[in-house]
Input
Amino acid sequence: MKTDDLIDALARNVEPTPPPRPIRSAILAAAPGVAVAVGILAVLIGVRPDFATAMPELLAKAGASAVLAAAGATALAGALTPGRSVRKRTALALGLLVLMAGVGIAAGLLAPAEQRFAVWLGGGFPWCLVLIPLLAAPVAVGLVLLARRLAPVNLTGAGAMIGATAGAIGAMVYAMHCPVDEVAFVATWYAVAIALCAVAGAVLGARILRW
Output
């Protein structure tokens, strides 16, 4: 058999490779980390005592965080797809984060001057700055493993979106514990905590995502 005939024979029954589904892959990669984060919250941190009666406030906090998580995951999916521009998606995710922080700042400024810092700080140290990144960590691990398998080109950008997505998911989980419902507190410090996760992801992305 001639070489050309052999090549033609091998090429006849080649099935097209199915296109990657990075959003679905990101959900599957994050799921084990979400379970771990919920376990950490339940065992080590605990849910708020009035969990049942505070459900509307809890859903509002978790819902706002879910919007940020969805925007971050969409931008991350684009970053993990070769040849796809993610500037608009990344700008949307970052814009929503800035908007959330802006709402918190505005709500704090509208409070009476003598209550402003108490409203912003929720009566104490904003522990969400520590606990949201903690709960985001197991989610980030799954997303990092996915990103390393898909080999993104923009490591810093992909790392930032991993951090932002994981941070927003961590905020969703943390909402079950968070005892403060003031808009100024939640919007400001949740946004700051998620931004910290994004910065950490951007800094570490260039190292841990290199292939």
User: Anything to note?
Assistant: The longest helix spans residues 183-208. DSSP finds eight helices and no strands in the chain. The two ends are 40 Å apart (CA to CA).
